[in-house]
Amino acid sequence: MNLIYLTILFPLLGFLLLSFSCGYWSDKTSALIGVGSIGLSSIVTILIGYSFFINNQIPYTQVLWNWIHINNFNVSIKFILDGLSLIMLCIVSMIGFLIHLFSSWYMQGKEGFSRFFAYTNLFIASMIVLVLADNLILMFLGWECVGFCSYLLIGFYYSSEKNCMAAIKAFVTTRIGDVFLIIALFMIYNELGTLNFSDISNIAKLSLIHNNYTISLITLMLLAGAVGKSAQLPLQTWLPDAMAGPTPVSALIHAATMVTAGVYLIARIHCLFLLTPKILYLISIIGVITLTIASCSAIVQTDVKRILAYSTMSQIGYMFVALGSKAWDVAVFHLMTHAFFKALLFLSSGALILECNHERNIFKMGGLKKNLPFLYVCFLVGGSSLASIPLITSGFYSKEKIIFSSLSNDDIIIMLVCLCGTLLTAIYTFRMIFNIFHGEEKIIIKKKYTGINYYIPLITLLLLSTFIGALIKPSLENIYPKHNFHETSKWTLEIISSILIVVGILMSRILFLKKININNSTYGKFLHALWYQAWGFDWIYSKLFIKPYISIASILKNDPLKNLFDFPILLLRLVNKVLLISESGYLRWYILSISISTLALITIILIKII
């Protein structure tokens, strides 16, 4: 297990090699380095995971060096391997490897091939730092690097202003949450005197914290940071626009890295949240509201990637519900299964978009089942897992536990909203599948060459999206208490949920066959416009924050204080222009200048002597 550092070193070396190559290497060499570095990281992950289970799942720490040492403040580059960090490491490295392997096919012939893999290698390295960090400072380093990499990847096609604006929006919105996270770090150190996870856990377990108001404020700040990263209400607006980057980037952000970071933060430092029941309940409320508004928005979207983006917001909402219900292990379990089927759906959508000549509107597709049977199976399995089809999909086993955890916590209203969410999820998921693969053929398919780097990732993720993926149970017994669900209630809830899922699929089929449009009534037009524009959050934020900020900035750009700061610059420019006049290039001018200067110098000396 002393090889933990290699899981970060390999992707980091891949990033450095690809960066310094400046794009001069061939695509094959760049792909070999970009994909190979993540592959080596995955192999090391398997080895240390095997060693972890052999050693009876005893947590292991590795100290590389002392990072910060100021008086009593001491922070080390220290990694921890326990059940939670191991499952996250497996998701990041292994799902990341499959996405990288698929990307070597997807990015063929595209501009910025080596640059793409340089960014994604740094992305993976940053996320591994985040999940293995033993303290909040090191975790925050990975946290910020992940945000920076997402900015680079979302704005990868920077020649388009729209893509650049989407990257800036994601960067600024997530930074809002990060500011609150920084405040939380300062408050934790001020209150507890440490930023180490194990020390914080020990202090919380021994009930050595007496200031409940401060702890409530700390957990609220931590929640704000998690909300920003995981695209939950009210900082959820950046995620749909993040579809501007290459599709494998969307798979990476949604399945293996960025949006899961907020869930991991709360799960890792759950000991503090246990001391603040009201904040835990707030987490559940945020989750159910986000999953509801995201599901409604997904129902009316036409862009296949935006539908999947809203589904991610919805599924992260379910994870927040589990966290708020103290079902930490269930939240991590759904995080894992979600990584399987969401990576499958995004990679499949990337292949679909390429096959359809970069068309993303589901209503301009149709009848593709015969021409693209493999992608049809991928969408069907991934969509079924997203909709939680009973027994045969991995999503069913994790999502049902989340719904039951809210019932076990006596949150009946939250449970009912979650059940409604399963109905909405089934509707928008199969609405997408029916419109793309069934009905009249509307688009001419141009077959693109496919190879082993195309099939292996999709087939692997397809298998993991079935019940096979649910057999991989995160080993979290030593971290969280085990839940003992009442079997009778559990079966009853699963039957109700299954009925709702079937009803949702039938509704989407009826809507597809009868071509029913929500815009047929005034009320329907209003709902369609509201949901399509993501409930108007962008418009509200633009009116409340963006436009006032721009107006204030335009007023202050000519303020006297700015002119005062600009005066030295203007003076230097004036001196520069005067000195440039003296550089005429004529020898007689230089002799005259020297003579005048000498005469002036002599005159000054004589005046001082007299």
List its traits.
transmembrane helix, 72% helix, two-stranded antiparallel sheet, NADH-quinone oxidoreductase subunit L, 610 residues, ND/Mrp_TM, membrane, transmembrane, mainly alpha
3D structure, described in words:
This protein has about 600 residues and is mostly helical. It is built from 25 helices and two strands. Helix content is about 70%, strand content about 5%. Strands 1-2 form a two-stranded antiparallel ribbon. Helix 10 packs antiparallel against helix 15 (about 330-355). It starts with 5 loop residues before the first helix and ends with a helix. The model has no long low-confidence stretch (mean pLDDT about 85). It is found in: Endomembrane system; Membrane. Keywords: Membrane, Transmembrane, Transmembrane helix. InterPro entries: NADHpl_OxRdtase_5_subgr (IPR018393), ND/Mrp_TM (IPR001750), NU5C-like (IPR003945), Proton_antipo_N (IPR001516). Pfam families: Proton_antipo_M (PF00361), Proton_antipo_N (PF00662).
Summary, kept brief:
With 610 residues, this protein is mainly alpha-helical. The chain contains 25 helices and two strands.
Q: Multimeric state of these chains?
A: single chain
Instruction: Give the averaged pLDDT, no decimals.
Output: 87
Order of helices and strands: HHEEHHHHHHHHHHHHHHHHHHHHHHH
What is the structural class? mainly alpha
Could you estimate the helical fraction of the residues in percent? over 70%
* Uncertain runs: none
How is the biggest beta sheet arranged? 2 strands, antiparallel
Large-scale geometry: globular
* Strand adjacency order, main sheet: 1-2
Strand content: under 5%
Say how many strands there are.
2
Intertermini distance = 86 Å
